[in-house]
Structure formats: C-alpha cells, structure tokens
Amino acid sequence: GPCCGGRVQPRAVMAASGGSGASSGENHVKEETAWERFAPEFLKSMVYGGMDGIITTFAIVCAACGADFASKDILIVGVSSLVADAISMGIGDFLSDRTEQDYARTVREKKRQLLQHSPQAAHQVLVQAYCKQGISASDAEKMARILGTYEGAFLDHCMIHDDGVMPPDDEPSSVQKGVVTFFSFLVFGSVPLAVFLVGDTIQHMFSRSPLLVSSVASAMTMFVLGVLSGTLTQQGVLRSGIFMTLHGLLAAYAAYAIGQGMDAMGNGEDSTNSSWASAGGGISSDGAGQDL
C-alpha cells in the first residue's frame, strides 16, 4: 500500500495528512482518483485538440473562401488537412506526454538511488528545499524525518520541492491522451467543414452564404471550448469563452484576407501574362507578314 513504501501522489499525501482518520483519508484519496485526478487530464487533451482543430480548419476554410474556391475544392483541402493535422496533433501530444513522464521517472529514480545509498544526503536535500520555502530549519528537519519513513511520499516531496518536477502519473497513459487529442481535433475541426457538405442547399433555402453559417457555428463551438477551458483552469468561464472566440475569429479573418489578397495577385498576374501573350502574338504576325 502507499504507506509501506509505495508511490504516493502529492494530492494523496496532502489528503492523508489532513487531520481526519487514516481510513477516511484513504477513502477521500480513492474518490479523487476516480474523478478529480484523471478527468482533468482528459479534459485538457480534449480542449487542447478541439481548439487547435476548429481554429486551424476554420482558418483554412476562410482562406479558401477568400480565394474564391468552389465548395468541392474547400471540402477536399479542408478534409485532407483535417485528417493530417489530427494525426500529427495526436502523435505530438502522445510524444510530449511520454517525454515528460520519462523525464519524471528518471528524476525519481535518481532520488531513489540517493535515498538508498546516502539517506543522510537525501534527508538534507529535502530539508534545504523546505528551508528555501521559508520553513524554519527545525520544522524542516521534523518534516523530512517523518517523510523519511515513507519512501514514496519522501520521493514525491523531493521531486516537487527540490527539482520542481511533478511525480510521473500511472494513469491516464500517454496513448490515451494522444487518442483523445486526435478525436477531439477531428470532431471539433469538422464543424467549419460540415456546412459545405450542404452549402448549395443552405444558399438556396436560407439565402445565406455557407461561410456565414460556418462562421456562426464555429464561433459558438469555440465559445463552448473556451468555457470548458475556463472550467479546467478555474478562471472566469465567460471571459475565457469570449477570448477563445475572438482568438479564433482573428485567425480566420487574417486567413481570409491573405487568401483574398493572394487570389487578387494571381488574377493580376494572369491578366498581365495574357496581355504580353497578345502583344507577342501581334509582333509575330507582323514579322510573318514582313517575311512574306
């Protein structure tokens, strides 16, 4: 068990030392493990993948509309980019989390080796870390001595207070986080594109541009994701929702303007080439007439 040298999570250490009995402390830790510990990790991956997915795809849609692409072309470019980016984001989240967890395990193993081969040195490391936080030397000695009887808790505190590294998580796994990011990117990123599947129908029935409907749907989705982000970070949910929406709309507007500008440049270049071709054709005809 955790009190016999096993690994103890920081929240578990704090809950177990909360002043209630040992059994009630253990029950409280189990309740945290069921929801408070794992659900925020999945929610973070979902918001992370969802926001990136909808903003990236919405920007691509706006750029394509600015360049006057047909609905079919927008769907081809958008869906291709959506799937490729979702794969990239899922793998990226997996690799990032795995690297972080591997580093935490390396730090923990170094602290374990120090504790096994030089307990007094490990004790002093934790005492000094506590003293740097303003704890008196005598209290730091007492705290380190008590934790020294629980290897898991001692290692966790050494990592947090000396190295500034959170202990590695056993769950959820890096693979699970990567999968959540992948599907979140795919699902939320499909919102701006879904409208263009029935773009002609929308235009005929409601006399509204598919881009306008896509913009409204995307803005509403970004606001919801912003609210979820605010809930996750325990900040103002309304402010977070508005900020995320403005962030996405700004990126989309920039993409639309660039697409429109590049399209205008391309049309201007085509006109210039046509003019030169016409002029060249005239000279060639005159030359041919002179030769004749």
UniProtKB/TrEMBL annotation:
Keywords: Membrane, Transmembrane, Transmembrane helix
Keyword Transmembrane helix: yes
Entry's Gene Ontology cellular component terms: endomembrane system
Keyword Membrane: yes
GO biological process per UniProt: intracellular manganese ion homeostasis
Transmembrane segments: 179-199, 211-232, 238-258
Membrane protein topology class: Multi-pass membrane protein
Highest taxon of source: Eukaryota
GO MF, one example: manganese ion transmembrane transporter activity
Location of the protein in the cell: Endomembrane system
Pfam families: VIT1
Region listing for Disordered, in residue ranges: 269-292
Chief place where the protein resides: membrane
Family (UniProt): Belongs to the CCC1 family.
Name of the protein: Uncharacterized protein
Gene source species: Rhizochromulina marina
